[in-house]
Amino acid sequence: MLIGVIIGSTRQPRACPQIAQFIVDTIRSSNDYRSLAQKPVLKLIDLASWNLPMYDESHVPSLIEHYSDYDHEHTKLWSQEVQKCDGFIFVTPQYNWGYPAALKNAIDYLFNEWKGKPAVVATYGGHGGSKCNEQLTVVLNGLRMKPTESKILLSFPDRETFTKAAQGIDLCLSTSSTECIWEADKVQVETAFAELAKLLLETPSTK
Ligand SMILES: Cc1cc2nc3c(=O)[nH]c(=O)nc-3n(C[C@H](O)[C@H](O)[C@H](O)COP(=O)(O)O)c2cc1C
User: Fold this and answer.
1) Which of 46, 52, 75, 125 could bridge to 70 as Cys pair (CB 3.0-4.6 Å)?
2) Ligand 1 within 6 A of 95 CB?
């Protein structure tokens, strides 16, 4: 089983990579993960590295049955990357009550590669990114994905943290740190992962 952990912001500097890593580390140290006989692999997928152009395919993705039918090499590669994954954790900031355009663009490139797969929506912001969490969940339902009931909403506790995140400064999220600002939020991550793991077992593999 492979879970793609999608890093949803692409600007430089940014906070998203360290927040995605915090989520991965929290899952790996959880009892639910440790007790699994077959542990899913968690793979970070950084949209900044993919650097996809604005959607430039000539076809509607839902009508594409094989990745070789896409026009462009970047779409064929992106399709193969998403096909490899059995489920996803979308990690994204809230931008003006929505989620970043780069993430919507990366999603829109494909359809059948996402369809039927379970996913967790993990958002962050001044109020946990609740507005963009709702919006992304609507989009995943439109893709016929299976978003978990459990959401991950991570709030910056104060102005100082908000400013640090915006500047891409280390938020000291290391799971071993008792000073971690999101120590109490780890349970959200654990609960969402437990639900994702259950959905993964119930979902027939399309690979
Ligand atoms: C274009 C833009 C719009 C933003 N809009 C919001 C917002 O609606 N709500 C919020 O809580 N934070 C907002 N922020 C602040 C972000 O939560 C914060 O800068 C965070 O670090 C962004 O994630 P990133 O560093 O991975 O890009 C916004 C930031 C940017 C760059």
Assistant:
1) 75
2) yes
16 lines ligand 1 (CB under 6 A): yes
As separate numbers, helices (DSSP H) first and strands (DSSP E) second, the chain gives 8, 6
List the CATH number of the domain containing 94: 3.40.50.360
Which residue range(s) make up the domain with 88?
Answer: 2-202
In this structure, the number of other CB atoms found within 10 A of the CB of residue 186 comes to 18
pLDDT tens track for 35-64: 999 999 999 999 999 999 999 999 999 999
* Pocket lining: 75 vs ligand 1, CB cutoff 6 Å: no
Position of tokens 């790996």? 28
147 CA distance to ligand 1 middle (Å): 23
Q: How far does the centroid of ligand 1 lie from the alpha carbon of residue 99, in Å?
A: 9
Could you tell me the pLDDT band of residue 175, with boundaries at 50, 70 and 90?
A: low
- Tokens in use for 32? 């639910």
- Please say whether the beta carbons of 42 and 87 come within 8 A: no
Does 11 contact ligand 1 (Cβ within 6 A)? yes
Task: State the total domains in the chain.
Answer: 1
Residue 9 maps to a domain: yes
